[in-house]
TrEMBL record, chain A:
<dbReference type="GO" id="GO:0051538">
    <property type="term" value="F:3 iron, 4 sulfur cluster binding"/>
</dbReference>
<dbReference type="InterPro" id="IPR006058">
    <property type="entry name" value="2Fe2S_fd_BS"/>
</dbReference>
<keyword id="KW-0408">Iron</keyword>
<dbReference type="InterPro" id="IPR009051">
    <property type="entry name" value="Helical_ferredxn"/>
</dbReference>
<dbReference type="GO" id="GO:0008177">
    <property type="term" value="F:succinate dehydrogenase (quinone) activity"/>
</dbReference>
<comment type="similarity">
    <text>Belongs to the succinate dehydrogenase/fumarate reductase iron-sulfur protein family.</text>
</comment>
<feature type="region of interest" description="Disordered">
    <location>
        <begin position="263"/>
        <end position="285"/>
    </location>
</feature>
UniProtKB/TrEMBL annotation, chain B:
<protein>
    <recommendedName>
        <fullName>Succinate dehydrogenase</fullName>
    </recommendedName>
</protein>
<keyword id="KW-0472">Membrane</keyword>
<keyword id="KW-0812">Transmembrane</keyword>
<dbReference type="InterPro" id="IPR034804">
    <property type="entry name" value="SQR/QFR_C/D"/>
</dbReference>
<keyword id="KW-1133">Transmembrane helix</keyword>
<dbReference type="GO" id="GO:0016020">
    <property type="term" value="C:membrane"/>
</dbReference>
<feature type="transmembrane region" description="Helical">
    <location>
        <begin position="96"/>
        <end position="117"/>
    </location>
</feature>
From TrEMBL, chain C:
<dbReference type="InterPro" id="IPR034804">
    <property type="entry name" value="SQR/QFR_C/D"/>
</dbReference>
<feature type="transmembrane region" description="Helical">
    <location>
        <begin position="35"/>
        <end position="53"/>
    </location>
</feature>
<dbReference type="GO" id="GO:0046872">
    <property type="term" value="F:metal ion binding"/>
</dbReference>
<keyword id="KW-0812">Transmembrane</keyword>
<keyword id="KW-1133">Transmembrane helix</keyword>
<protein>
    <recommendedName>
        <fullName>Succinate dehydrogenase, cytochrome b556 subunit</fullName>
    </recommendedName>
</protein>
<keyword id="KW-0472">Membrane</keyword>
Length: 285, 118, 150
């Protein structure tokens, strides 16, 4: 792909391209409709850039959600030519098509306005799986006296799933979300695994309330589409299957998990000369 | 019941089906592989001969509930994933599935056992 | 005019049941999800009919009559389709069973571009499902459609 980007640029840059955008104003329109805009492509223009150009120069009422425009905030996921993508990460030339480029709001979410999806249920689902470290020693969490141990290997077990930016692309790809509006969705379930797999956490049982419910993890039949759509390489379908395994272990009583202990400061060692002192402790004074 | 319990049974029933349905398919439809003529397999004498054997009694008594549970739970998940079906309707659908499942279980078990004894 | 609206008006934008049949340019796994459902439903629909038919084995006259009935017209072909669906459902079921417990899957790794997708690394299993289905169905077809009619 990357190799022929130069050729693609030669082919498309400077040309006029048609964008078909889905429009919907809830106070005026009864149903969404497509509106076309034509703009000239400049080099490196992303789909989001194109939307901004259209808003600036042609129709200031066009609504879309965006913030960081560099793949970090997760606001700008939309269906670009039928596939959920972060528009800020998708260059128009890379779509490599002469046909009009169709941009719709993310599928499987209600439309608030134009290209803006309604993420309230999505975020509620994320909240319901308790996305934070849960431990029995709550006192330590509230008034920490130090850090918990965690080896790089333990980190790798969940790190991938911690990269999620809550863009919602995975839900737009999921066939269960297509019909089941209450399904927790790949994002929340992968997030649940991110905490369950965390060596510092003890919250599997508490999370099961949401995860093991009628709209929970067992509505996933492994289509794998969420992982294909994810723009951050989170691979939610992998996380979900691994979470199923954890639940099985728990149900057969094999889920022994001692949470990571507090890291103790070694005592009785002498500091080598010339090594600067560590910064002041920020917790546990 | 917890969803994980129902689902684990679904998988367990699936695994059971893999073996017993394998036997069933093997005997009924791939019998030529074992040198038995297809028409013979389906003749009354051979069918009732098999029914009278303890091995087939066990196979079919395991196959029947496993198939009913696996199939009806699958149907239930499919239906419950359709959001336009409301909660009240879901409750009724669950009841109907349980009732029809039990009905077919009794009916089938009767035929299997009667075939074994007769 | 309303200045403040707690519940904004929205427009549903779910793909719906059509989304099972087509969702976009995803891998074949997303469509196997649907195929697994369709074949499962097919076999399930067949089950009560099959129970009723086979329970006629309790007496010879009933059995011979019902065997004559099901050998008519397109019914044997229908049965063959159920067989095909069942075989596919079984092999794909093995793949899913293993996957649900995290086997056949890559391990979590740091997401370094270009990202890998564990689901796609499992393609060989999908191909194996098709190969196994074809082998068994191929043999079954011979017995179902050819041998059975001689
Ligand atoms: S898992 Fe991936 S696709 Fe889903 S919300 Fe997170 S970043 Fe977006």
């Amino acid at each position: 792909m990357a190799a022929d980007i130069k050729q693609l640029e030669k082919k498309y840059v400077g040309k006029e391209v048609e964008f078909r955008l889905l429009r919907f104003a809830p106070d005026k329109d009864r149903a969404p409709y497509f509106q076309s805009f034509r703009i000239k492509l400049s080099q490196g223009m992303t789909v989001l850039d194109a939307l901004m150009r259209i808003k600036e120069t042609q129709d200031p009422t066009l609504s879309y959600r965006k913030s960081c425009r560099m793949g970090i905030c997760g606001s700008c996921a939309m269906q670009v030519n039928g596939f959920p993508k972060l528009t800020c990460q998708t260059q128009v030339t890379e779509l490599n098509t002469d046909k009009p480029i169709e941009v719709r709001p993310l599928a499987n979410f209600p439309i608030l306005r134009d290209l803006v999806p309604d993420l309230r249920n999505f975020l509620k689902a994320h909240e319901s799986i308790k996305p934070y470290v849960i431990r029995e020693d709550a006192e330590e969490l509230d008034h920490p006296t130090g850090e918990f141990y965690q080896s790089p290997k333990e980190l790798e077990k969940y790190l991938q799933f911690a990269y999620c930016i809550k863009c919602g692309a995975c839900l737009a790809a999921c066939p269960t979300n297509a019909t089941d509006h209450e399904f927790l969705g790949p994002q929340a379930l992968a997030a649940a695994y991110r905490y369950v797999a965390d060596s510092r956490d003890q919250g599997l049982e508490q999370r099961l309330e949401a995860v093991d419910g009628p709209n929970g993890i067992f509505r996933c039949h492994y289509a794998g589409a969420c992982s294909e759509a994810c723009p951050k390489g989170v691979d939610p379908s992998l996380g979900i299957q691994l979470l199923k395994r954890e639940i099985l272990k728990y149900r057969v009583g094999a889920a022994h998990k001692k949470p990571a202990p507090l890291a103790v400061t070694p005592k009785g060692l002498k500091r080598r000369e010339g090594i600067p002192l560590p910064p002041e402790k920020t917790v546990g004074q | 019941m917890r969803e994980s319990t129902l689902w684990l049974f679904h998988l367990l029933a699936g695994a059971v089906l893999l073996t017993v349905l394998g036997v069933h398919y093997g005997v009924m439809h791939l019998s030529n592989l074992f040198g038995i003529d297809h028409a013979t397999v389906l003749s009354f004498s051979s069918v009732s001969g098999r029914s009278g054997r303890f091995f087939y009694l066990v196979v079919y008594l395991v196959l029947l509930p496993a198939a009913l549970y696996h199939g009806l739970y699958g149907l239930r998940s499919l239906i419950f994933e359709l959001s336009f079906i409301g909660l009240v309707l879901r409750r009724w659908i669950s009841r109907i599935l349980i009732l029809s499942g039990s009905g077919f279980l009794i009916y089938g078990a009767y035929a299997i056992i009667a075939g074994f004894l007769g | 005019m309303k200045f403040f609206q707690l519940e904004p008006k929205t427009h549903a934008n779910y793909l719906g049941v059509k989304g099972w049949a087509y969702g976009g340019r995803y891998g074949i796994e997303r469509y196997l999800y649907t195929l697994q459902r369709v074949t499962g439903l097919g076999v399930l629909l067949y089950l009560p009919m099959h129970l009723i038919v086979t329970s006629q084995k309790l007496n010879q006259a009933g059995w011979e009559q019902v065997m004559g009935l099901v050998a008519r017209g397109l019914l044997p072909f229908g049965e063959f389709l159920v067989f095909v669906g069942g075989v596919f459902h079984a092999f794909n079921g093995i793949r899913l069973l293993l996957t649900h417990f995290g086997f056949l899957m890559a391990q979590p790794a740091r997401p370094i571009y270009p990202f890998t997708v564990a689901a796609l690394k499992q393609r060989w299993a999908v191909y194996l499902v098709f190969v196994m289905t074809t082998v068994v169905v191929g043999y079954g077809a011979w017995e179902f459609l050819i041998v059975a009619h001689h």
